[in-house]
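Database export, one record per block. Field names are fixed; values are copied verbatim from the stored entry.
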Amino acid sequence: MVSESGAGESSPRVHVSYASDSPEHQALVIDFITFLRGEAGVDARLDVWAGDIRRDRVAWTVEQFESSDFILVIASPEYGRLGDGVLAGLENALINNRIGRDLADATRRILPVLLPGRSAEEIPPALCAYSATYYPIHEFTLDGVRGLLRVLHGAPEHVMPPLGTFLPPVPGAEPILVVKDQQPPSPAPRLRAGCEAAIGGRRYLVHGDLFEERTTPDGAAVHRYARALRLGSPHQHVWLRQVEVRQETPTVATALAALTRERDLLAAPTGQRRGMPRLLELAEDAETTTLATAWPSSRSGGPCDTLDLFLPDPGEIPDGLRITGFLRALAGLCHLLAVMHDRNTPHRYLSPAGIFRHDDGRLALRDLGLAAAPFEPGEGPSAYRAPEQGRRRPGQVGPWTDVYQVAAVVYHLATGHSPTRSNPVPLRAFALALPPETAAAVDAGLATDTAGRPSVADLAVALERAG
């Protein structure tokens, strides 16, 4: 099926069925579908956009139902009431007819959607809201529509692994039991929590507290992240990031290239500055590529803490003196980010969990985040993600993205909670002890409009004034 010009080759064609409950509801529907087309790349069609010429509205509606890959049913109190105009009754009839003709196909293709403020009770009974899936949309961002996009693109969050060969037991003589000394399994290069891994000729004991594993949407690769102890003399705490290749695809090639580029960035003179991650090795084994960087030790010999351990607990009043110390340390981190910005390599994944805190109060980067990776819509740490990272269009992330994330970390440290995505309460409302110019710079750093944010160097100056 061919979508209209301008849509991506794999963009599904979608017809939107809704009722005109009120001008406000219709405006919300238009905003949502505009977002799907412009930001999510979905070839969605609305009747209000078909007014360029005189049309047979009934014929147009039937054609949309027949030619679309999916039908989005926007739930509302008035939807499905025959008194709401000819087209509403016609679309109800077309939906009911499709359900009666092929229930399985209709269940797959007709997708009930709940816009903000709506409830499942407003979904038409024929679509079985209480026994079939529906798609609540809480905000018009790529994160907010991720569940719907996975269905439209046929890309589940978790891919079922292939089925192996079934080997039933073979009947016959009584088995002969042979007892052998149990040998410990040889370490493999794949990272597993609590297990030993052999990577690039070295052995690592992988800790489970920070272990993370995620499969790419196409199932072609697995990304793993873990803190580990490098065995040998002397032992050393390390941070490991690994890509396991299951199938050669462009996505996998991009992921491997990002690890190699980060290795090169860290090996360059600017990558060896104080506060940068210390490169240990990039190891390429049979199916895995692993980047190892040092995890600094504390005075006690254990791994040093990360900044997330110093965030105020919910309801806790942040300690002003301690916050001042953190702001001075974050100013130093901003100067380090300015060096990265001079090389056009913004970090783009700054969060308290990715920032080391040394015993003397200095801060350092755990890794280079996404500096070596191309932009991907929805990237970045969820609580500190800049608005431009949730948009589909590339070219909108940059040094200003780091400014937002540093400002969000400051806001969390000073208030006890991360800022809201839009119109956060000004920082001075929570932290009266901060100098006005410091609070104003942090608030400006959280601006949705990237042009309104200060440079990372200017933010550093404002944070230094807090001390």
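Remark 1: The domain at 304-466 is CATH 1.10.510.10 (Transferase(Phosphotransferase); domain 1).
Remark 2: The chain has ten helices and 15 strands.
End of record.
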